[in-house]
Model the fold of this input.
Amino acid sequence: MDVVLRDAEGNAVLAVADIGEGRYVANGMCTGLGDGDLEVEPAGDELRILINAVKWLAW
Done:
């Protein structure tokens, strides 16, 4: 498993792996969760990470 993204303290936030004939993404971000735990549309870097993860899984 390869860590792709870490938080400021160095903890893994996003990791990926090729497993057998498939792929795996472990995403520890709360994508789409805004202030006050309200649901929001992902935007900016958060959206870019989500889209790139899905593309990588489908590749």
Q: What stands out?
A: The longest helix spans residues 44-58. The chain has one domain: 2-58. The radius of gyration is 13 Å.
